[in-house]
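Researcher: Here's the sequence for the chain we discussed earlier.
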Amino acid sequence: MAENNKSENGSIENSFNLFDSPLSEETKKHKRNSIIASGICLFIALTATLPEKLAIFGINFSTFVQQKTAGWFIFSVSIYIFLYYLAYALPEIAKWLRPLFTLRSLNKRLKNHPSFDGQDFSDFSGSDNPHNVGEFYIYHLKASERESEKRLKPLLNFIYLRLFLEIALPVFIGVLAHIMYFNFIANL
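Model: Thanks. This is the structure I predict for it:
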């Protein structure tokens, strides 16, 4: 996961990057396990069949009570894996989003301050000293970055698909699978 500290020049602006994955490698492994466990629950719920045997261990569930017990066990393990994923993912997502919310809050506060107006954030005229090349460079670099981002915006918007697939979809599948599985097991 990308570090969300202030950047080299101390600004908050560069510390949030939408393209950095909010999830660490460890959390991605938990996400994978959660999706697998949720997929098993979803499959059992959609097919409305409980496992009759575990071929790997050579265990047969010949009676309905044994099958129902196995079903509750699968549900419990799957819920645990899903909650474990959420326990890792949600704090990492919050840490990843913190600089963005901080910057938005700072801009809002500054715009409401009597010393600033809306032009202070959109129309920087540079330093009064024409020999200050550093400020001139930084101003034009930022203007170039904004122009590039504006031109690439249609392509950059695909990041939301990635975020959906990486964050929202596993949560949705997990919640849906566990609700459906719980309803199936409870109604046996």
